[in-house]
């Protein structure tokens, strides 16, 4: 992340990223790579890249401030969308790389995130998948993450993963 775009993050995700950052920094300090061990050098580079990514996320995040409960699709909202075949999907519009339990996360930079950002319930949008097809999607609801009640099951996840 090279921009200073503010990103929404739950307090739990923020804490997990801080813990991961501390662990990675400790590993870097205690497991110095030798120039002769290519695998060790590659691991250290990957750790450094992850440290930078986490640092950028933490530097630019808004922690736990739920967006207004106005039904508009924006970061920090749990969205329910319906596809033309009737399948629905529920996901958090948030930050990839920070875990939110069993809730799927789409960033605002993802094709679906970009398409649905700013939508209101009942509004229909579409996004492109790698095959070039346009997938129409309708926003059913947008609820702040802190007010969200988890759904125990829904049938749309399998269908969406087949589309992807």
From TrEMBL:
Transcription elongation factor GreA/GreB C-terminal domain span: 70-140
Keyword Protein biosynthesis set for record: yes
UniProt KW keywords: Elongation factor, Protein biosynthesis
GO terms (BP aspect): regulation of DNA-templated transcription elongation
Keyword Protein biosynthesis (UniProt): yes
GO molecular function: DNA binding; translation elongation factor activity
Species annotation: Mycobacterium dioxanotrophicus
Protein name: Transcription elongation factor GreAB
PROSITE patterns: GREAB_2
Residue intervals passing through the bilayer: none
Family matches, as Gene3D superfamilies: Transcription elongation factor, GreA/GreB, C-terminal domain
